[in-house]
Amino acid sequence: MRLYQFFCLSKTFFCLCNFQSVVQLDLHWTMARPGTRIIQAKLVLVGDMGTGKTSLVLRFVKGQFFHHQEATIGAAFFTQILSVSEATVKFDIWDTAGQERYHSLAPMYYRGAAAAIVVYDISTMDTFARAKKWVQELQKQGNPKLVMALVGNKSDLDSKREVQVEEGEEFAQENGMLFMETSAKTAENVNELFYEIAKKLATASPPNPSGVTLNHEETQERRGKLFCCIG
Ligand SMILES: Nc1nc2c(ncn2[C@@H]2O[C@H](COP(=O)(O)OP(=O)(O)OP(=O)(O)O)[C@@H](O)[C@H]2O)c(=O)[nH]1
Ligand SMILES: [Mg+2]
């Protein structure tokens, strides 16, 4: 099993961004490893409602899972730091709402992103069709360097499976995406997913993908830099 250096800095802002309401603000500060190259990357999750986007992020950031996770309103923001051998990656994570009525807000969240996770639920074929539409939309937004991952979540529901692994794999391959089946419930492949994205961002050859900022030293804390939800 791979050793993940979450050497966290688990600095988590959790705020609902349907506009300006802060639900939870939870800051823990730790220093990143001295001398490590630091990459700050905006990551967005999109996909149909109920596919498990919020659950995946909560599993990754807080190690939590809720059987009755509430639907996201607008979007929620989280941060997490992950060290891979090449760099320390600071993820600014935008977890978008899957309900159709929020669709028009999505560009605000994926614009300038370095990475996008498109999530479907392996037990519902409709969500896979929706994921394909999301991939088309992201491709149209015109950042050829966007690191994209296709994720079939709820792999624990194998007995109810409607989307075969091969279908997901094939579509991801055709579109140059990472592919993984995950379970936010059991935690299967959740850390692995973010690890693979971090590796891909860290090894991206220059010029850097947009949405990524490189710092060679930890020069500043971002305490005053809450750009959503407050004020
Ligand atoms: N069995 C199982 N249930 C899951 C998994 N991930 C999420 N769920 C459940 O699926 C439901 C929806 O999860 P959410 O994380 O809210 O889904 P979402 O994509 O964020 O939904 P929206 O915010 O409406 O877009 C919740 O009841 C979760 O408990 C999983 O891996 N396995
Ligand atoms: Mg959600």
Describe this structure in words.
It is a lipid-anchor. GO terms for molecular function: GTP binding; GTPase activity. Keywords: GTP-binding, Lipoprotein, Membrane, Nucleotide-binding, Prenylation, Protein transport, Transport. This protein has 231 residues and is of the alpha/beta class. It has one domain: 3-Layer(aba) Sandwich (Rossmann fold), CATH 3.40.50. Helices cover 24% and strands 26% of the residues. The protein contains five helices and nine strands. Strands 1, 2, 3, 4, 5, 6, 7, 8 and 9 form a nine-stranded mixed β-sheet that branches. The protein starts with 11 loop residues before the first strand and ends in a 16-residue tail after the last strand. 43% of the residues are buried. Guanosine-5'-triphosphate (GTP) binds next to α1.
